[in-house]
Design a protein that fits this description.
Chains A, B: Its EC number is 2.7.1.4. Chains A, B: It is an enzyme of class 2 (transferase). Chains A, B: It catalyses: D-fructose + ATP = D-fructose 6-phosphate + ADP + H(+). Two copies of one chain form a homodimer. Chain A contains nine helices and twelve strands. In chain A, a hairpin with a 3-residue loop joins strand 8 and strand 9. By secondary structure, chain A is an alpha/beta fold. Chain A has a five-stranded mixed sheet with strand order 3-2-1-4-7, sandwiched between helices. Chain A has a five-stranded mixed sheet with strand order 10-9-8-11-12, sandwiched between helices. The first copy, chain A, is globular and about 60 Å long. Chain A has two domains: 124 residues, Nucleotidyltransferase, domain 5 (2-Layer Sandwich), CATH 3.30.420.40; 147 residues, ATPase, nucleotide binding domain (Nucleotidyltransferase, domain 5, 2-Layer Sandwich), CATH 3.30.420.40. At the A-B interface, helix 6 of A face helix 6 of B.
Chain lengths: 291, 291
């Protein structure tokens, strides 16, 4: 049986999985992200069990990463502020120990691919995760966007909500960028209440929906995708999707034509944050035939 | 001699030109944009003189346009507010009368291609025009960005400058979007003085540079281009480029690595708004071999 590997290299945990030709999960494991050597060693140990059938592996990593083919540091996590992980040759380490074909992309790109492959007739899609931070993955014609590197859609500046002028935002780099104003920690910074405990009728949700709607607006006008998927912890608030749609319609004001709103702004089709795993299986499989 | 045609279909004027294999202008003409039949008839008459040598034509049009291959209205100017031009089959009209191969794109995309081809080793570029309006063209790996249509980078929302909170912006669709806050007409709306007559030491220039720097920031984080070209009337103010660079460096705050700033944010390399003509010749020529 042919198997494909998925590695979600996150800042707090690694999720490793193997899947079959139908992109179904055969086995999955997770462990905390500690130091590079230790964590990558555990990764290698996991995949060694499957190495007779393993065809290829896709790695979806926290960033910034170098995913430019032909670059000297291709396959590296580069200038991350995460302790110990700066300048880590993740693909080099893995390939040395498990010599199969590798694909390397960002965590959000893999999620975007996962969401693409479970939907019919979609080859142009934007995926946002809105949780502790905000990130975005963009696919056009079945391939990632990116010139000299990957996008950082979470750090774009946005217009302030009139009721939010006094809030400086919590992004350590930019203060009041999208992530600084709309990721999970901004909720607690404004209200003193943990995000998941804030009641549904609190005015802060409208403020946050206004910012997320601007992310959707920017994705719409920059990439003209067929569909925009909103994932991450903040979107698990059952009332958020409706608020974001409503704010987005006001902001766009009919300027470009979009599909019916309920088909256009959607939650992930893959449950339990599993989009990246499916995406990785698909990318690993595709890489076999295109390399 | 092989000739290639360029049509810049602008909202106020059409510029038609023929170029040779080296993308040099052999002949060029311009006339006002009136009604579709009249203006397109003048266009056809112009190119008929060259039809024995004309290989292909690229049309760079004001929008919105339908440039999605295979679409029912491919080659149309679609829902433009410009009187008479709504739903005009521009490529259909031209192809019927001058039956050569056509390429169809936006005015800003053609300018982006023109700026790409006159530079060495660039295949990922963003071109903004900042004038009466604001538009952007994006090239990645030598091809346009765009899922179900072309981008509208001028209508993205931006963070307000603290000294500009009371200004509502002049975009008829969005008020205080980028175009509403930073295109030429916003200068007169704020100051009561025509843009080109505002003295260099007027504080409004810093406000405008702050917004243009946000456009550069958005392009950087969304597309990660090798270079960003700023064209259009507003950038003809000799002091603007320096202001924009300075604001951009503050806004980006080192978050992603970019080339040296003077190589990264630049004015057009083609003089006299000629980028689109060069781009069209190149696109027309490329279309011959890829169609």
């Amino acid at each position: 049986m042919k198997l494909y590997g998925s590695i979600e290299a996150g800042g707090t945990k690694f999720v490793c999985a193997v899947g079959n030709d139908k992109l179904e999960i055969i086995d999955i494991i997770q462990f905390p992200t500690t130091k590079p050597k230790e964590t990558l060693e555990m990764t290698v140990n996991y995949f060694e069990r499957f190495k007779d059938n393993l065809q290829s592996v896709s790695v979806a990593s926290f960033g910034p990463i170098d995913m430019v083919r032909g670059s000297k540091t291709y396959g590296y996590i580069t200038s991350t502020p995460k302790l110990f992980w700066d300048n880590t040759n993740i693909i080099g380490f893995l390939k040395d120990r498990i010599p199969v074909i590798y694909y390397f992309t960002t965590d959000v790109n893999a999620s975007a691919f996962g969401e693409m492959v479970v939907r019919k007739d979609v080859d142009s899609l934007v995926y946002y995760t809105i949780g502790t931070g905000i990130g975005g993955g963009v696919i056009q014609s079945g391939h990632e966007i990116g010139g000299v590197g990957h996008g950082e859609l979470g750090h774009i500046y946005v217009a302030k909500h009139p009721a939010d002028y006094d809030f400086d935002g919590v992004c350590p780099f930019h203060g009041a960028c999208l992530e600084g104003l709309a990721a999970g920690p901004s909720l607690e910074a404004r209200t003193g209440i943990k995000g998941e405990l804030i009641p549904e009728n609190h005015p802060v949700w409208d403020i946050q929906a206004f910012y997320i709607a601007q992310a959707v607006m920017q994705a719409t006008l920059s990439f003209r995708p067929q569909i925009i998927v909103l994932g991450g912890g903040v979107m698990k608030q059952s009332h958020m999707l409706k608020r974001v749609k409503s704010e987005f319609i006001k902001l766009l004001n009919g300027y470009v034509s979009i599909p019916p709103i309920d088909d256009y702004i959607v939650l992930p089709a893959v449950d339990n944050n599993g989009s990246a795993t499916v995406g990785n299986f698909w990318l690993a499989k595709r890489k076999l035939t295109t390399d």
